[in-house]
Amino acid sequence: MTLYAVRDLANKINRHEKYLDGLRAALTSTTRRLDGMPRAQSLDSRIETLTQKIIDGESELIDLKNSQADNALALSLEIYNRIKNQNAAQVLSLRYVHCLPFKDIIAEMKYSDASIYKLHKSGVEEFNSYDSIPEC
Q1: How far is 102 from 99, CA to CA, in rounded Å?
Q2: CA triplet 7, 9, 15: central angle to 5 degrees?
């Protein structure tokens, strides 16, 4: 498991949600214009196609969110198993499992900026992945 896994899934989920929002908007505008009016068979076919894409997309979104939850749990366990200093593990968890910016981590843990950055650096070194650390 890499520290990238949860962040990459979060980005994929965001893109997928935007795609579904676009499909829903297209379906809404199509049905709103035709409400109560007789329609050509091709429009019914377009409505059916959009509806099926939304249903399939929502199913895929559920799978992505379940995968993200599984990866977040696995990454969290891996962080806490590898890192001896629990404060450093908490910094890595907040940063890479929850994708919080450093300012939010500093506020939550109530440590100085320098202390958080030192904990982060030591945690990353202990995790043995310093070169592959993503920016959230």
Answers
A1: 9
A2: 105
- Report how far residue 128's alpha carbon sits from residue 80's, in angstroms, rounded to the nearest whole number: 13
Positive or negative torsion for Cα 121, 72, 65, 9: positive
Residue found under tokens 């962080």: 79
In sequence order, which residues have a C-beta less than 8 Å from that of residue 1 and are 6 or more positions away?
Answer: 71, 74, 75, 78
Q: Which of 57, 59, 121 is nearest to 85 (CA)?
A: 121
Q: Which two tokens stand for residue 123?
A: 């945690």
Q: What is the pLDDT of residues 18-64, one digit of tens each?
A: 999 999 998 888 766 555 556 556 767 888 899 999 999 999 999 99
- Spatial distance between the Cα atoms of 47 and 40, rounded to a whole number of angstroms: 11
pTM over 0.85: no
pLDDT in tens, 57-114: 999 999 999 999 999 999 999 999 889 999 999 999 999 999 899 999 999 999 999 9
